[in-house]
Each structure stands twice: as C-alpha cells, then as structure tokens.
Amino acid sequence: MIELYYWTTPNGHKITIFLEETGLPYQIRPVNIGTGEQFKPEFLAIAPNNRIPAIVDTAPADGGGPLSLFESGAILEYLADKTGRFLPPTLRGRAETLQWLYWQMGGLGPMAGQNHHFSQYAPEKLPYAIDRYVRETGRLYGVLNTRLADREYIAGDYSIADMACYPWIVPYQRQQQNLDDFPHLKRWFEQVGARPAVQRAYALAEQINTAPTVNEQSRSVLFGQGPATGKR
Ligand SMILES: N[C@@H](CCC(=O)N[C@@H](CS)C(=O)NCC(=O)O)C(=O)O
After folding, report:
1. Which fold has domain 2-85+198-221?
2. Any idea where the domains of the chain sit in the sequence?
3. What global pTM score does this model have?
4. Which of 39, 51, 79, 221 to mutate for ligand 1's pocket (most ligand atoms within 8 Å of CB)?
C-alpha cells in the first residue's frame, strides 16, 4: 500500500497520475498546504522540506519496514522501479527518461512556479520579475515543443517524464502562454490529457479540494516562510 501525502497542486497531480496509471493500491492523506498542515510534526517526519507530495510505502520490495520519501521526482522514479512501469529498463532509455524528468524538476517546475508567484500572488506587481519568469516559462515550452516535434512522447514511450511535465502545462493560461504558439506541445498536451488515468487523477483532486489554495488567509502561511519554518 502506498500512503500518499497529497494536495491538489501540480506536484501532487504527478503522483496521482502515476498511481492511477498503474493501479498500485494507494490511500490519500490530504495535507492542506493553505492551512499549514505541512508543518505538522508527523508530516515533517516524512517530508522535512514541508512540501507535498510525500509517500510511505508500507510494503517495500526489500521486505523491510515502511519506507518514506519526499520530492516528486524521487517518488516517480521509486514507484517506476517498484512497478517496472513507465521507466525503460535499458541503460539508454532510463538515462533519457531521467534526463527529462530532472529537466522538469530543475527547470519547468521551479520557473513556472515563480511565474505563478509573481504574476498571480505577489502583493506588488513587479514587471521585471513577471517578465523574467513568463519569458523563461516560454523558453522552456519552446524546448519541449522542439523535443516533441518528431516523437509522440517526451522520452520514448509514455513515461514518468510525461507525468512530471503534464501538470505544469495544465495552468498554461495562468503562466501567460498560448499553446497555439507551440503546436507539438499542444498535440502532446491534448493526447496526455485524454488518458483515462489522467482524467481520474484530476477528478479525484476535485473531490478533495475545490477552493483555491492561495487566498488571503493562506498567503502568510505559504509566503511568510523563513529559516525558522518547520523547526522541530
Ligand atoms: N521539488 C518539490 C516541490 C514540492 C512543492 O513545491 N510543493 C508545494 C505544492 S506544489 C508545497 O507543498 N508547498 C507548501 C509550502 O509552500 O509550504 C517536489 O517536486 O516535490
């Protein structure tokens, strides 16, 4: 059984997509990051970075005790190894897939996240910051568009690289991007979005939370963090 510590955000959706695709049994443990549940000691014991997603695998392959993990890329890689799905077993296939997974983790996710922050949430509209992250998001969309020009999925067959990138393209309008400027990316986006497992993952999110996570109350919880945050 996989216990998934989850909230309804792009990094959370990556893991529900994987779990829905594979049918691996899982239970959701909602962590409302807007009300500060990411600072509860029991969550910090699993996820010391006070961020979702995190998992506990109650039956790891080595037969040992429960194994906990945070960081969505590490979780996807672990679950792919556990199930033997969505990460090719070959040396080159694995390297290529992980390369794009970490491109998402180090590039698309953080840059689109800053784009959301400065465009939507920052109390001051700072033109330099907005321009910087909207442009960088656009550059990364361009990289993905070029990559998808001559292939169906990001790295060989549909893989954890696609599952990591897709939820970060879903909010493309909030990121001030026009998918018509990226036709190969648009084709891939529609193809991935039509997968039944992806649709189940997003439908599940609607059952767990329909309110925006960032509002007046949650603003200080999410954006007021500093060195003392999460100290135990
Ligand atoms: N690199 C991390 C990022 C996780 C992350 O930023 N999670 C956000 C939601 S998408 C979160 O939990 N935020 C809570 C907070 O800011 O306190 C991962 O991919 O798992």
Report:
1. Glutaredoxin (3.40.30)
2. 2-85+198-221, 91-195
3. 0.97
4. 51
